[in-house]
């Protein structure tokens, strides 16, 4: 073995570095490549468990609406009735959801979410029974109101991230992007699963499967107590609606929800068959991919820019349907969906900044409530358009109009100096 050369120093002999020795002060170890922001996110204890079970609990959100539309339309022969019934459930939910979220803020997620999910599951089962027995139409509207106690699992999951990452805004942006991608994944897989179950088995199969997944997922999500945010002390702040800028932002969410509701019913009616679910899921697939990519960027876009992109891209399904090509419609939905996740992530980020921390569940649920109200309006309008359209592609004008309305509302709200970040 070769010996190192010795050099004389005032303190005596010392090792003289050879030409092949490492330079003083430098290391042979290569710097580790930076880890993915998502890997860093889920390296925190307990995050994988609540994220996984929260995903299971949210999957039925993409199943219940499609299952109800297929179930009611197949038995009663009317898409208008199916759209009106689902719209009624969403409208009632828009009233009850903020109240449930307020209870969650005051008493904790597990204590409120479990009984609320049980009541909602019972409502879905009763609705399926009514459709199976071909009950009077009024019974469908009365029964669907029982499903309006569903807890906002997505909001509770985002509240957990907000608590865990309260000192790390960059990681919180990544977490919000993941949550939106998870929502889109549910709306990508949910319609496919619902359409397959309803078509291959029997009309009520999608609703029954969704009810089982919803209740089981919520129970296991609530069981993850280590990451549950602490109960916030009561404050005299009043409703988050009083926060400056919240009401204009909620009107934007309302119009954005109409985009989703009308697109779902119009696409189901236009395609009308087992392939309708997979075609509709492509919009969510595009949004899911865009959401994951958006979570890796450090600088977020403005809500106004996201809505402008959504308005432009919503013209693609209309053009494809006008051409009469199912393949072109599928591609148009895929591309149009890519503006959805960035819009929702940016909008939810604004909600989190506007809402007092002690009312975070309620503030985010108000945003979801506005979306649900918009989806209800879009579903009812889409069902009417499906039954009374003067030409096949007419219904696809609705999501384009709703997107343009959201853009106009955001533009009006963003004109004030205090809301330049919009």
UniProtKB/TrEMBL annotation:
Residues 1-39 are annotated as: Disordered. The chain crosses the membrane at residues 49-73, 79-100, 112-131, 137-156, 208-224, 245-263, 275-294, 301-320, 326-351, 363-385, 391-415. Keywords: Membrane, Transmembrane, Transmembrane helix. Residues 1-17 have a biased composition (Low complexity). Residues 18-33 have a biased composition (Basic and acidic residues). InterPro entries: MFS_trans_sf. PANTHER family: MAJOR FACILITATOR SUPERFAMILY (MFS) PROFILE DOMAIN-CONTAINING PROTEIN, PTHR23542. This is MFS transporter.
